[in-house]
Amino acid sequence: MMLLMEEVEKYLYYCKFQKELDDKTIRAYRIDIQQFIQLVGKENLDKEVLNKYLLYLHCTYKQKTVKRKIASVKAFFHYMEEEEIIEINPFHKVKTKFKEEIVLPKIIPRDVIEQLLSHLYRKETTQDNSEWRRKIILRDIAVIEILFSTGLRISELCNLQSKYVDLHNGVLCIQGKGKKERYIQIGNNEVLSILNAYKSCFEEEIEQQGYFFVNRYGNRLSEQSARNMIHKYAHEIKADTNITPHMFRHSFATYLMEEDVNIRYIQKMLGHTSITTTQIYTYVTTKKEKEILRTKHPRNKMAVKKNF
To answer: Fewer beta carbons under 10 A from the terminal one: N or C of the chain?
Structure first.
C-alpha cells in the first residue's frame, strides 16, 4: 500500500471542516501521519512492518506521546476505510494496547501563589509607577487571578472574547477544545474587582480588538507573552520552581479536590470530556494525604515503650 500526501491533505481538510477539530490537533495529526509515512516508506503494511513501527515509537518516545501518535495514525486509516479508499484498515492486524505511565500534574504551593499575588498587588500600588506601567501590572494581576480562579487553559484565556465576559454576573463563556462551550463562575469578589478595574483601564483597546486580554500595543495577548510575564514575576519573588500558566490549572483542580469538591464538578469546570482525564488529580491528593499522615498524625509523636 502506497500512501499519498494527497489523501492525508483530504483527511486533514475533513478534520478541520467536518469534525471541526482545532488547529493544534490538526497540526499534531499532520506531524504524526507524515512521520508514519516517512518511517514505513513504500513497504507493504503487513503485521511485521506495523509492529516495527510500534516498537520504534515505544523505544523513542514517552508513553503518552506514543499513545497520541498511534491514535492519530489509526484515526487516519479508519477514515480511509470508511471512505472506501482502502479495503481493510491494516491496524486491525496488530494489538496496540500498552500501559500508560502516570505523570502527576505539577502544582504551585499555596504559599507561593499567595506570595506571587501579594508581590503584584504591591507593585501595582507603588507610587513611582507611571500610568502606563500601572495599567500593565493591573493586566498582569487580572491574568494570574483568573488563571487560578477558573482553571482556564492559557489558550482559552488568550482567546477569550470580551462579548463572552459578563462581569456583572461574574460569568465567563469559554470556547474550549473542539469549540465546546462551558460556563465558569467567578466566585471571589476581589477577583471580580480587579477584572473590573482592568477592563476600565483597557476599555478602548478591548472594544477595538474584541478580545478581553490585550497586550501593550492593544492587540490580543499572546500565549507566549503570558508565559514570559509569569516567568518574570516568578523570578522576581525567587520562586523555587519554574511556574507555567498550566500549573495554575493543575493547582485549581488539585486544591478543589483537597477541599472535597465532587470530581464531576471539577471535570465540568475544567472542560474535560472524560472523567478519566480529571482523575489524575486524585493521585496528587492521595500523595498529599500520605504526607499529612506521615508528618501530622499524633501516633508519630508518641514514645511508646516496647518490651521486645
So the answer is: C
